[in-house]
Every structure is written in C-alpha cells, then in structure tokens.
Amino acid sequence: MLELSAGAGEIDLKYLDESGFCAWSEPSYTYYFKGEQKRVEQTARRGRRLSIIGFLQPLISFVYGLVIGGVNRWSYINMMEREAQEAQELGRMRVIVQDNGPIHRCREVQQLWTKWEQMGLYIFFLPKYCSLIEPN
To answer: Among 110, 40, 53, which residue's Cα sits nearest to residue 83?
Structure first.
C-alpha cells in the first residue's frame, strides 16, 4: 500500500539503513582446494570505522550522512529531524521504512515519534528478520 501511495504521488516513501566500513582486514578473493580451509590473517587495526546512514527514495534521491565511528542514536535523531523538517516544509506525508535496530526504538527516539508525526514524518517498521523483496 505504501508503494502504491508513493507511486500515485500521495506520499514520499523512503527506506533507511546504516552500514559501516573499516580498513582493518583486507578482502581476498582466492580459490582453495576442496577440503582446505581458507585462512585470513588479521592485520593490526588501522584507522577508525566510517559509518553511513542513508535514505533511499527509489528513482528520486539518496540522502546520506557519514559518521566517523558508529551510527548512534544522536546521529540517527539528527537525520530524522532533517527528514521531519523537510516533510513539514513541503506539507507532504513522508514515510520512512526501517528495520528494528536498537537505535530506531530507544527511549530518546520514542519520545520524538509524536513530534515527527505532527510534522508529517511517519515510521514503518519492517517485521523482525524481514528482508526486503525487490518489486517486480
């Protein structure tokens, strides 16, 4: 229903996720004989983790924020506040589809849900252990 509403131009529909990268282990793509175990040496840790939080609006936009270290509740709240502000300025309902990550449901975030809804931003949580299925 959300995708149909977005396709009809009734709402803005975005998908949120986070990921992180670290220059710690080198990825290796090699072949091993059947029955042999692949061994990857762990190098000394180099640099800090670079994390990204992004909002994908298919065929329209990809908005993201980069964080040195991990994405935490404060960086998540900052990005969601921007989405809520934009929804309010445009006067359009915006729905964010996201997983059930701990930062998405922490106490500080739950206290902002009513405010965000009044601004036009709504959150749709995916069922636990749900992988998104590519539309036809």
So the answer is: 53
Query: Distance between CA 88 and CA 24 in Å, rounded?
Result: 42
8 Å CB contact between 121 and 90: no
For residues 81 and 93, give the distance between their C-alpha atoms in angstroms, rounded to a whole number: 14
- pLDDT for the residue numbered 131: 59
- According to the CATH classification, is domain 2-20+50-125 in 3.30.420.10? yes
Phi and psi at residue 106, in whole multiples of 5°? -65, 165
Domain range list for the chain: 2-20+50-125
Nearest to 11 by CA among 23, 22, 1, 25: 1
Q: Give dist(CA 130, CA 71) in Å, integer.
A: 21
Per the CB < 8 A criterion, the answer to whether 20 and 52 are in contact is yes
H-assigned helices in the chain: 2-7, 73-90, 107-110, 113-119
State pLDDT tens for residues 97-113: 999 989 999 999 999 99
